[in-house]
TrEMBL record, chain A:
Signal peptide segment: none
Cross-referenced Gene3D superfamilies: MetI-like (1.10.3720.10)
GO CC annotations on file: plasma membrane
High-level lineage: Bacteria, Bacillati, Actinomycetota, Actinomycetes, Propionibacteriales
Name of the protein in its database record: ABC transporter permease
Principal cellular location given in the protein's record: membrane
TrEMBL record, chain B:
Transport is among the record's keywords: yes
Similarity-based family: Belongs to the binding-protein-dependent transport system permease family.
Species of the source: Kribbella capetownensis
Source species taxonomy: Bacteria, Bacillati, Actinomycetota, Actinomycetes, Propionibacteriales
InterPro entries linked to this entry: BP-dependent_transpt_permease (IPR050366), MetI-like (IPR000515), MetI-like_sf (IPR035906)
Protein name (record): ABC transporter permease
Gene3D superfamilies documented for this protein: MetI-like
Amino acid sequence: MILRLIERTGVLLVSLAVSSVLVFAFMAVLPGDPARVALGVNASEQAVAELRQQFGLDRPLTTQYVDWLGGLLHGDLGTSYVSKAEIGPQVFDRLQVTLLLVLAGMVIALLIAVPAGTLMAARHRKVSGLALSAVSQIGVAVPAFLAGILLIMLFAVKLGWLPANGWTPPAQDPAMFLQQLILPALALGLVQGAVLTRYVRSAVLDVLREDYLRTARAKGLRPFQALWRHGLRNAAVPVVTVLGLQLATLLIGAVVVERVFVIPGLGSLLLDGVSNRDLLLVQDVVMVLVIAVLLVNFLVDLLYVALDPRLRVGSR
Amino acid sequence: MRRLNPSLVAGGVIVGIIVLMALVSFIWTPYDATFVDPSIRLAKPSWEHWFGTDKFGRDVLSQIMVGSRTTLFVGVVAVGVAAVIGVPLGILAAMVRRWPSEFIMRANDLVLAFPALLLAIMFGAVFGASTLTAMIAIGIASVPSFARVIRSGALQVMRTEYVLAARAAGRQPWPIAVRHVLPNVTSLITVQASVSFAIAVLAEAALSFLGFGTPPPTPSWGRMLQESQEFLFSAPRLAIFPGVAIAIAVLGFNLLGDGLRDRFDPKLEDRR
């Protein structure tokens, strides 16, 4: 277990280092220089030179990289070439919004997937099971932003029950926050729930074939009792892995959903950065998202081992 | 006789219809998909315009038809990029020694940290948004899944007796890869291509929706959805038509992928 932890931590650190080089290098190969991009084509040579000097863009790339990485490690993401504002506080503020949205989406996905997937597995040869399978197949095919638009049409336009968009911080007005959170979280959660349902179903189907479940039935437990007491915990192992991978997908999916619901999250910040040609901001947000994805994968890997003792011995 | 596989049939029919629609759009559409006619803007569905018109008076059905070309084009190129890089990598990872193989798979994992959407936004920021950047970004992001699936398939092939025999007979790795491994992983490639196609359709729609995909005036389902957003109250149909088109296309490729998988591996059939 400890060996595994060390190995995975090593892999995480190397991945972080390599991806930071990739992100930096990618933004550095940019045709034209960032100062010129930030100021626009009509800016004078002198203004561009001043900006380059002000932000240290005239230094060698390696120095700039080391500087950027050092800042990242201290939570200092630098100053925007365009707005001249500190990037760090913006990114962390927006990250909180996105994380709240993603977590709410995840909870909804789980609330849908666990019961629906279990039911589908338990009735996989019956009409009700097949019908649920068909519904989940359709759910998988609907992108989150489309789900968002459909939800707005139904609950905001037609029924008028919930606001169509907007965002209020929970501390400012908890009731409004919840109202505005429901639709975007549903848009993310319904689609991820459909994907997850298929994994839950497959995991529960595997468990249903196990000897220990037959033994439990032979002891006189009803099918659902047996599944509840012995099956679900075993089915959790593969589901947790998928859940982790989905968390990464949700994080990126949130970028589009934020646009639909006009939510000031990390995704909106990234898209604003692109349209304002604020390259350092884009570089920082991309890096933060990549770090989040790598961290989630790392945690899932550990959780996977913790849940399934068989994996503690031997490697993959 | 073998039982007809419903997923394969349904997926095949849906994909067939989309391909047909794209092909027909080259020679015929009800109207010119980019023709602007302000006098009939936001017209409701009628005999003249089956799906109505958009805010510029363009015919929605014609746009959906031409948009299917964009969707298929992006999918084909993205899946092509992913397969051309991912398949050789997967086979290579299965055939080389442990450390090089480990290195390939680790690099592969690293690419997973850059989802298609993020890559495409980065490409868009640096090179400007276009269909090309979207296709390449989606393609690169799909490489890891190809490499992973093909590697596991190729590992199984490498353990078969005919490969052992070929090696014992002194055949070089390269001919073994081409003559024995590749033909035996084609079913995996087909399944993965179908699944990746569905993901590419979703990614393209999302990117066009965000303005990082196909630029106007070329019709694209994702951008039609984005343009429909300001009319959710007055003309919700403008969102419904492209939305349904996207969902049906993804459903079709997913079903096709599932169906193909069952066909190539009948043991799995009642699992899905």
